[in-house]
Amino acid sequence: MRKIVILGGNGFLGKKLTEQLSRIPTNAVVVYDRKLPSNNQRFANVEYISGEFVTGYDFASLVRGAYLVIHLISTSVPGTEKGPLDEIHTNVIPSVELFDSCVAEGVARLLFLSSGGTIYGGSAYRANRETDPPSPYNTYGLQKVMIEQALQLTSHYSSMQYQIIRLSNPYGPGQNPHGPLGLITKLVYQATNHDIIHIFGDGSVVRDFIYIDDAIQGIIDVIEHGEMNSIYNLGRGTGVSVADVITTIEAALPESLNIMYEPARKVDAPYSVLDISKYRAISTIDEFIPLAEGIKRTHNFFITHSE
């Protein structure tokens, strides 16, 4: 059996990833998170451990005997992050302690989920490659860069191998429509419930959106087929403006949209798209789920799981 520890295993991505990895009979999956699902929502063959991602936690006991550790946890998200010092204390230092514990316990591999949307900053209207220098435009991206570099340094001086995934903007069923992340999920939820939709700016901001099922398969592809000690961009590799997202939602859903435009925000880079050529070389996905289809699936989820 291969022990796999997923930190942040009860989040949007973590739940889906846990579900997929726990289906493999040779995997013994352990989920670690601050909040755990109720007993009737847990997978029978998964161990659940509750804990805070903080400095001084006994990460050594958590990862003991693990073959693979998957680090999905962040105590902040874009829009809720604080100053650089707070991000260092709450995200960077605990991550470094986790890495040190993994090395001490002989963990073979560690995968870190970074941010393709904030690492590169505002690009010159072209897709960002893994070789592009990081230029984060908020402290969330800054802490991701620091954790990436700490992991690379730890691996360099140990036998532990790493993989880093810079994920774009995932959306779909299971994402919290009331949270600060997930533009498409929020817009579909608001349209379904006839809420006012607030759009910052004129809708020209361009992002790389990826449906949750594709995002999870992409992570598994990197785990199973990706190079060690390497970084992978993961998205659809296609830019879509907020205005085009709205147009697609209007065409795909029966509800009418009630849109209110607000002043643009400085935190929103005008263009953020990933070059996924490197991932494409190992991908098992023939075609990504189209935006309209992902919107319809998300809408159907909210209809069948109405609050």
TrEMBL record:
InterPro entries, A to Z: Epimerase_deHydtase, NAD(P)-bd_dom_sf
Pfam families associated with the record: Epimerase (PF01370)
Domain of life from the UniProt record: Bacteria
Residue ranges annotated for the NAD-dependent epimerase/dehydratase domain, each copy included: 4-235
Similarity comment: family membership: Belongs to the NAD(P)-dependent epimerase/dehydratase family.
Protein's UniProt name: Epimerase
Organism this protein belongs to: Bifidobacterium callitrichos
